[in-house]
Design brief:
With 142 residues, this protein is mainly alpha-helical. It folds into two domains: 71 residues, no CATH class; 44 residues, no CATH class. 65% of the residues lie in helices and 0% in strands.
């Protein structure tokens, strides 16, 4: 299971780090591994900087100081604009999936047409469904 930094464990971990505890004690208190904690710190740091905070402001807000922050900042500033995740499928494959699905194919048939895995197809479908529901589209229409 892939935990996110906004989960209850993530909030607990980040709060412990903000209080000045180390990574190991904070991870232990949240019930996670150290590497998950580092990933959450990196994600939170990058999100803060993307929202306009400077590197120093984000560092102070996190309550975490390490040489890793410099590396994270360098990776953040050198990534190409609009970069997709390294495991993401090509954009045209996603378009092919949605064309097939909106034409009336089931999620499973559309994913086979596009040549993607079941979990990817259902993740895309759920993301779009949630997005439409947030826009007050009825369940049937969504």
């Amino acid at each position: 299971m892939h935990l996110h930094c906004d989960s209850a464990a993530g909030v607990r971990f980040l709060a412990c780090v903000r209080e000045g505890r180390g990574i190991k004690p904070s991870a232990r208190a949240a019930g996670i591994g150290k590497e998950t904690g580092y990933r959450w710190l990196r994600e939170t740091f990058i999100a803060m900087c993307d929202q306009g905070l400077s590197m120093e402001q984000a560092r102070a807000e996190l309550g975490y100081s390490s040489a890793r922050i410099g590396v994270w900042e360098q990776q953040r500033t050198t990534r190409p604009a609009g970069a997709r995740h390294h495991l993401a499928v090509a954009a045209d494959v996603e378009v092919r999936f949605w064309v097939s699905f909106t034409a009336g194919a089931s999620v499973d048939a559309a994913r086979r047409d596009a040549g993607i895995g079941r979990s990817t197809a259902y993740r895309w479908w759920r993301k779009r469904f949630v997005s439409l529901r947030e826009q007050d589209v009825s369940v049937r229409a969504a």
